Amino acid sequence: MTDALPDVGGNAGHAAFLLPDMGGGGTERLTVELANGFAARGARVDCVLMQARGEFLPLLDPAVQVVDLAVPRLRHVPGALRAYLKRETPDALLAAMWPLTSVAALATRGLAKRPRLLLSDHCPLLEQYARPLRTNLSLRLTAPLTYRAADGVIAVSQGLAREMEQLAHLPQGSVQTIPNPVPKPASSRWGAHVWDDMARPHILAVGKLKAEKNFALLIRAFARLAADRPGTLAIVGEGQERPALEALIRELGLEERVRLPGFSATPGDWYLGADLFVLSSDFEGFGNVMVEAMHYGLPVVATDCPHGPGEALGQGRWGTLVPINDPVALEKAMTEALAATGKPIHQRARAGSFSAKAAVDAYWQAMFP
Q: The Glycosyltransferase subfamily 4-like N-terminal domain covers which part of the protein (predicted)?
């Protein structure tokens, strides 16, 4: 899964990556790339999880040690993490996803051998935690107190970096931007057969079924498109919004036109047989799935949400950007993209610029300066 990386040999350092679990999301996919890439370079690597579970867990290289803190709640993390840090003394710790980032900063205070601490977020925090008010207030209080205690803060897009600087009261330009590595996703030998005999064109979306992905918008836009032509929409992923999305599909009479096949360990199968990729999110930190689609030469239509799509698509150079939460604009852009003559070679070239090696190089320098 990871690009070939040189083994630097010798004492390359001990890196730890902290996450809630290894569920099938963009942050978890990034962690797989970094952990495997660091291990390939000869580093000792620990993947430290609140709970050792998730679809991406089997994708970790056997050389990566999985550390199960076995804690169900955040309030149990400081003690368990601190015990691990005292026992294993890693040289660097990268914690991702607020509020786990803030908890990690608290857990490292006063350690006799404190690791170099880096904090990373992958979605716009103010949008993600706008509600409830109590959570929003907690974010606004804890981020300035804890993020300034870190040795470095990393964002996956420039827009997100500026937001984090404002939120945590950090100096302008102090948050480092490292775009996500997005390799070509795995496919099985059956490839596009996952689409079976579904009518073309094949329109694809990939991501966790959660509210901010706004797959309901995509389904409503597809309903408009499907009224005049054949076609199939597949939304590959799993999550808590499944019941609501299934109800919407029934309400619109699209049971035979929209598929929710669940999480796929080989999403390349779906990209291989697709004609168009659509991202309908209300907000994104980066939007890995758009780049995955470009690896397969697919045209991309995406909402111009904060902060990732505009940057990843070059403000429209490599895809079409539409306003958020506008099913009419989204349907129009989908129709035009399906009718246009695509340039797969340009899409693939753009996708290639987000290599695993470039990301591992950047994170390596941040963790082992």
A: 25-182
